[in-house]
Input
Amino acid sequence: MTRLALVTGGTRGIGAAISRELARVGYRVAAVYLGNAESAEALRQEIGCAVFKWDVADYLACEAGVHNVVRTFGGPIEILVNNAGITRDVMLHKMSPQQWDSVITCDLTSCFNMCHATIGTMREHGFGRIINVSSINGQKGQVGQTNYSAAKAGMIGFTKALALESAAKGITVNAIAPGYIATDMVTAVSTEVLQGIQAQIPIGRFGQPDEIARIVTFLVSEEAKFITGATITANGGQYMA
Ligand code: CAA
Output
């Protein structure tokens, strides 16, 4: 039986590209979404993955959701891609506690929730691949994103610590730090700001979601088994960590 991969935020943007690519190279895919049922259904029909709806910011929902996925597929989650994330861009002096909390919880605490729900079985089976989708803005910071930059930088530290804890158990844990990728999240930023950002990208364009997805399929493959605790940067040269 081919391995089972779960992708959070897996039905839109970078997550959908990751689900597509994993399915294309032969994994069974469970994609978790929260808001947009139409895109979830469209992806399910397109690639034949299973889609599940729950809030990855909610610990108990993750426990129950993982249980449901395992029961549906009749086997454990062997590949976990923590991709779900939101932005609430605003300067710190105008940021509400709720704008802080929602980003930290959805983008960072979700990694704890999902890893906690899946890693026990990975440890028992002696195999696991965990990929955390961080961001260039967790590496360099970004005006208007103290919440998001903190969460995405937190994911990098989380990745390194969990990689150390898991290395002897056949589990690799890596992060990807995409730059500005052409998705709804990025195009929500004003055209004026986006033009300024594009001018800072040496390659001269935004990235495409499949350019991130192919890093995931490499990191989860047998060929990448010596890579753990790494942060793979893909940002068109905008920032060299
Ligand atoms: N560098 C330095 N200062 C900046 C700045 C920048 N890039 N952008 C804005 N400022 C300054 C302005 O000059 C202004 O200063 P003064 O008041 O002294 O003139 C102040 O910040 C406020 O600017 P605005 O009038 O634009 O204020 P605002 O409150 O309406 O918006 C903002 C500020 C929230 C930062 C807004 O400009 C914004 O949303 N910027 C885009 C942030 C961004 O890049 N988000 C990435 C989203 S995509 C993503 O996150 C995916 C990923 O992983 C890459």
About this structure: The chain has nine helices and seven strands. The pocket of acetoacetyl-coenzyme A is lined by residues 87, 89-91, 135-137, 142-145, 148, 180, 185-186, 189, 193 (CB under 6 Å). The chain has a mean pLDDT of 97.
